[in-house]
Amino acid sequence: METLVKDKSQKQQSSSIDVLLQEGRKFPPSPEFKKQANVQDVSVYAKADQDPETFWAEWAARLEWMKPWKKVLDWNPPHAKWFVGGKINASVNCVDRHVHAGEGHVNRRNKAAIVWEGEPGDSRTLTYWDLYREVNCFANALKQLDVRKGDRVAIYLPMTPEAIIACLACARIGAVHSVVFGGFSAEALRDRIHDAQAKLVITADYGWRRGKQILLKNAVDDAIKDCPSVKHVVIVKRDGSSATTCHVKEGRDHWWHRLMQDAELVCEPAEMDAEDMLYILYTSGTTGKPKGIVHTTGGYLTGVYATTQWVFDLKEEDVFWCTADIGWVTGHSYVVYGPLASGATVFIYEGAPDWPEKDRFWKLIEKYGVTIFYTAPTAIRAFMKWGDEWPARANLSTLRLLGSVGEPINPEAWVWYQHHIGKGKCPVVDTWWQTETGSIMITPLPGITTTKPGSATKAFPGISAEVLDEMGHRIDVGGGYVAITKPWPAMLRTIYGDDERYVTQYWSKWKNNVYFPGDGVKRDEEGDFWFLGRVDDVMNVAGHRIGTMEVESALVDHHAVAEAAVVSRRHDVKGEAIVAFVTLREHAKKSSHLVQDLRDHVVKKIGALARPDEILFSADLPKTRSGKIMRRLLRDIAEGKALGDMTTLADPTVIEHLKQKYEEIEGS
Ligand code: WT7
């Protein structure tokens, strides 16, 4: 494992550093932006650094608490408790406090909370009062279905207002939500429902994607055949006028709109401990089994609230559009909890960016007057490829700030984004963080940071980040691993049901009080961070995190497959593409039909996001004498590079043969 990690980090670092070293462009904040920015004074860094606990406590104090905390931080490495003894409810902070007049709160009762457009062009606006009513009502509906504080609820919905309402309704009664991205397959959904022992599933009959109906309820039906924990299913009817084809099981399945008709209007919010679980979100790691990342209430809200205000320079009049699906952490933190705790107007869109045309996003920005736009590098690279004419057709003059998240952004994409979308007047914030970190960790502050294309720049105030080498020595200038050296409020608390894995995965590379994110990074002379990608067996395909082992287990699950090794190679748009090397069983015959069948099998086991770009059959896989597959060499083949060190191979002819074969296929 150690050698693999090192190999990959060295490989990525040497190739990425070459590009980044040539990158000298700098973009200081414009005087106009700076003048109006939420943060204008660099002293915020030093102040937070001197006393991070006070810094975070000041942010927490701006939230609405039911009971004050007794102690800011209880740090028993690697376990942290923030705002100990404090009582708080997330839905109250995202909704109630905006509709209650007075007491220092802005009254946002009639302000748009959610502005939504569906892929076919249907739209809805919910004011904060509307959202308050819907959340209360649905919270009561959940109670009627016997959901209690601490119960887990799985959410498998398209990007519609109900996705947000469902999360907040769970939070209101103290149920723990586990949102599963609608692009995951029935089997992936089943595993997640099962791991969390969810009692109820919230889904829709379907959602729209590129003009097609994605039949979510059908997937739920398949998934819960093997999930005895699930007692009820709630179904959102995506389109009121159309006839529904989905199956409704009497007694178990309930239509959302029917429940809402019968539910009481007001639901008292549950008094939650700051450390009570708010949600579980599954993410991929280095094993075949996804990890249920646990986030709690008080610290998480504090982290997402602070970063929303400062990183996005949020103002009362902004229309904030984060394009992430609610199935990912970006959707949790910067569609739901951060912006709504801030009383922002959040825009959400259901469908694809190229439907019906490649200017859909730009038309939406124009139509709804979006001012802050936050998306992923893979999307930006797709826009670049589609051509400048698409954004040029729309009026994007309302935009005032752009964000990027999910993977390293190459300088070309950064500059294109700044020029063609931001028209040279919007700051670009490249924000580095993870499902595990809960909130943005390394990022510019748009009013004070001089940005550099490809660099996420500096740790957010109150966050301590460093570059360490294998042994844990600090590297001031140069490449290494990123490390977080102090606890922070939105940090994960554990892996659901597997605290041991929490400790070994994140807190055991160096000392047990230093967090290991698994990213390679370079630090320049000015102390800015340049992220280089993962150093473990986790891939980043189109901004989605997928473990090589997950795809391997999906492949070996197929009856024709004896063994599989999965690696990724660079891809112009997706960042990384999946390449699988497969050894077949005796009886199986290679064919293009089988390739298709294996691809479909991976889609069935995980979802379309994990579909391999290439599958190569091989009589053997390169192994060490102790029988370990050398993925490093397979990566060299997939990247079309010269093969690295082969001295530990059991049989060097295997790899030579594979390389030759791969090149033949590539060339044909
Ligand atoms: C991994 C986390 C954070 C929300 C979306 C992804 C990569 C994320 C950046 C960035 C370079 C980035 C890292 C990280 N990543 N943002 N701005 N620059 N890399 O969340 O699925 O938990 O993935 O995404 O490799 O470890 P996630």
Structure explained in plain terms:
This protein is of the alpha/beta class and 668 residues long. The chain has two domains: 31-521, Rossmann fold, CATH 3.40.50.12780; 538-667, ANL, C-terminal domain (GMP Synthetase, Chain A, domain 3, 2-Layer Sandwich). The protein has an eight-stranded mixed β-sheet, with helices on both faces. A seven-stranded mixed β-sheet has the order 6-5-18-17-19-20-21, with helices on both faces. The protein has a four-stranded antiparallel β-sheet with strand order 22-23-25-26. It is globular, with a radius of gyration of 24 Å. 5'-O-[(S)-butoxy(hydroxy)phosphoryl]adenosine binds next to helix 12, strand 21 and strand 26. The site of 5'-O-[(S)-butoxy(hydroxy)phosphoryl]adenosine has 21 residues, from helix 12, strand 21 and strand 26.
User: CATH-wise, what's the superfamily of the largest domain?
Assistant: ANL, N-terminal domain
Cα shape: globular
Rg, nearest Å: 24 Å
Quick one: how many beta strands? 31
What proportion strand? 15-25%
* Poorly predicted ranges: 1-14
Mean pLDDT: 94
Total domain units: 2
What would CATH call the class of the largest domain?
Answer: Alpha Beta
CATH architecture of the largest domain: 3-Layer(aba) Sandwich
Characterize the biggest β-sheet: 8 strands, mixed
Query: Which oligomeric form is depicted?
Result: single chain
- From the 3D structure, determine the CATH topology of the largest domain: Rossmann fold
**Fraction of residues in helices?**
25-40%
Structural class: alpha/beta
Report the bound ligands by name, code or SMILES: 5'-O-[(S)-butoxy(hydroxy)phosphoryl]adenosine
Q: Given the structure, what is the number of helices?
A: 21
The end-to-end span amounts to 35 Å
